[in-house]
Design a protein that fits this description.
Mean pLDDT: 96
CATH superfamily: Bira Bifunctional Protein, Domain 2
CATH architecture: 2-Layer Sandwich
Number of strands: 11
Radius of gyration: 17 Å
Strand content: 25-35%
CATH topology: BirA Bifunctional Protein, domain 2
Low-confidence stretches: none
Number of helices: 11
Shape: globular
Oligomer: single chain
Length: 251
């Protein structure tokens, strides 16, 4: 397949980034854009909450409000995520739901293999662990989430290269039973950043490795592009949804 690549290292706020991802999915279902890989940053740092989560069970609201950290609800499932402006790259892909992506678990394995290949490219041995994690030495460096619409899927996820784990631990709430199922007592024990494994992280090189990794995972030929006017216009229509407290606090 051909895969359009968009890179946004200058970043946008959480409301815009989520609006753009949704706009991409909608326009892909209408045949208005090609299959796409987007690599981007949240600026400022932010939190996203899974579609099915209850806000007060997913995040420490008091800490977020005191710290001025914006947050919103995603259209994808999964758990709450802290997106560090200076320590995390987010990826998103929009693809047709064709064999072998028709099976949800297999689609996670294939798409997350892009991250595994990218990390191996820079000398880090990572592995995919179902349902949707990429781990180093048993600790999570990436999580992903997905939604499906009209024969297409949107999957997006994280790559923590230098996330401030002190802030992450204060911002997110994870049920004790979930931590215990992973054999840990705290979020800090559960996650790892790339910088903890290799001291120096070159962001440009990391982006290149991610593009190469997803190209391999999806057996795709890539070309670089930019957001179309149609994508930006649709995202502008969607962005207020992500700012709306009725959407954010719908659960």
């Amino acid at each position: 397949m051909k895969l359009r690549v968009l890179v946004d290292l200058e970043g946008r706020d959480v409301y815009w980034q989520m609006a753009i991802d949704e706009a991409m999915l909608i326009l892909r279902t209408k045949g208005r854009i090609e299959n796409t890989l987007r690599l981007y940053r949240f600026i400022p740092s932010a939190v996203t909450i899974g579609y099915f989560q209850k806000v007060r069970e997913a995040v420490n609201l008091g800490f977020l409000e005191e710290s001025g950290i914006p947050f919103t609800r995603r259209i994808t499932g999964g758990g709450s995520v802290y997106h560090d402006a200076n320590g995390e790259i987010t990826y998103s892909v929009v693809l047709p739901i064709e064999h072998p992506l028709t099976d949800v678990q297999e689609s996670y394995r294939i798409i997350c293999s892009g991250l595994v290949y990218a990390l191996r490219e820079i000398g880090v041995e990572a592995e995919f662990v179902p349902v949707n994690d990429v781990v180093l030495h048993g600790r999570k460096i990436s999580g992903s989430a997905q939604t499906r619409k009209s024969g297409y899927l949107l999957q997006h996820g994280t790559l923590m290269y230098a996330t401030d784990l002190d802030v992450l631990e204060k911002a997110l709430l994870v049920p004790a039973v979930k931590l215990e199922s992973k054999g840990v007592k705290s979020i800090r024990e559960r996650v790892v950043t790339l910088r903890q494994v290799i001291n120096d992280v070159d962001i440009e090189a990391l982006i290149g490795s991610l593009v190469k990794g997803f190209s391999r995972a999806l057996n795709a030929t890539v070309y670089y592009d930019r957001l179309s006017e149609e994508e930006l216009m649709l995202a502008e229509q969607l962005v207020n949804k992500y700012r709306d407290r009725a959407w954010i606090f719908k659960r």
